[in-house]
């Protein structure tokens, strides 16, 4: 990696105020919270803690510019030019954004610089190019009439984004919401607000009108709830836990029945059939999928379902391939796994590990906190064997570097175990039998099914879940639909 990111740290200037109406402003209450780096536990900066008054100001500004039409009613080609300029400025500041992401939530700098930030830029570029390429429709009807089907921006969108991929998840929502003409209020997770705050001014520099994009840092129970209950917010786009997603459904019902899009939890099954082939390759790829981002990925294949005739060999290989993921300094370009996002999340994950032990599962690898002397939040890559599918560690989303292995006898049992979950975000299966691949994939209750891999998606593919993994889809052209109202205009000739 050519950039010496460590040398850039003294040059950083943290944006730590809310961005409302085109300006950085303190929270109305004057309250702040500490933005703590999980790398070493130090406070990076104090960030504005927004609440209801700030939400009211932001929504009023968003509504005003929406009704004015300077963005919502402008030609899609103009939106495209501004968004492409926005992406260009993100590219210009890519090293700064990558460093902010790593310092803020502890992921390796190689991941931030090599994956998250390029992916964020790509999302803005891709939806910019899509802005003037999504057509309206004319319905088939009688020759004495015309029936038009048009898409209009939904209005004021509040995007509440998570801490595991802070800028990437922001861009997945911001791209299609801006491309379709909406005003957008970003509420970043309190654990990771820095990149969202930084890109707000880049969007303004690109030519986005004041009020079209605003950023409100703060806590879920204050700023998040206020957005969810606000009578003039037209839509909530949320990524995060299933529990909080249910709060937003309730808030919508108790307020103005705003649209709600949710991408919530996952406990993705990873089915390995005995006929799958190279078990060493499959184990390595599966371990990479689990321990990437310290296991803090909603679609991570954390629930291995392995056929009983190969279980001992495969579990031993998973444990072997877990070792290279031992956590190290996130600012070292050779580090593969960094910290989990904060001490609270670390303790939560360690609690699940203890629960697995107490339920009778076997820790085959890892299982402990490490690098305690750094002051950061680090956990060993952990592998459980002898797991029953009804155990807590097999049913609940741990969101850390922990994988559990459950055995099955035949295809029918594999499908039953895979679907025995409240979640349905992603499922993976490994087999050399193409008929089995098609048959099993059709039976899996998941928004994405990946065959013979654990990675299988880019910005062109829709992403979202069945069951309690959510409502609606991010990515692809399908994401644009949820940020629009569909209007039918019937004209009698």
Q: Could you walk me through the main structural features you see in this protein, from its secondary elements to its overall organization?
A:
- The strands form seven sheets. A seven-stranded mixed beta sheet has the order 14-17-18-13-12-20-21, sandwiched between helices.
- It is α/β, with parallel strands linked by helices and 493 residues long.
- It is globular, with a radius of gyration of 23 Å.
- The longest helix has 22 residues, at 109-130.
- It folds into two domains: 5-264, Aldehyde Dehydrogenase, Chain A, domain 1; 269-456, Aldehyde Dehydrogenase, Chain A, domain 2 (3-Layer(aba) Sandwich), CATH 3.40.309.10.
- Helix content is 39%, strand content 21%.
- Helix 3 crosses helix 7 and helix 10 (279-291) crosses helix 11.
- A hairpin with a 7-residue loop joins strand 15 (369-370) and strand 16.
Specify Rg, calculated over alpha carbons. Answer: 23 Å
Contiguous helical run count: 16
The domain count comes to 2
Largest sheet: 7 strands, mixed
What does the overall shape look like?
globular
Strand order of the largest sheet: 14-17-18-13-12-20-21
Report the top-level CATH class of the largest domain.
Alpha Beta
Range of helix content: 25-40%
Derived from helix and strand composition plus strand pairing, the structural class reads alpha/beta
The average pLDDT score comes to: 97
Q: Which fold name corresponds to the CATH topology of the largest domain?
A: Aldehyde Dehydrogenase, Chain A, domain 1
Instruction: Identify the CATH homologous superfamily of the largest domain.
Output: Aldehyde Dehydrogenase, Chain A, domain 1
Got a strand count? Answer: 24
Low-confidence residue ranges: none
Residue share in β-strands: 15-25%
CATH-derived architecture of the largest domain: 3-Layer(aba) Sandwich
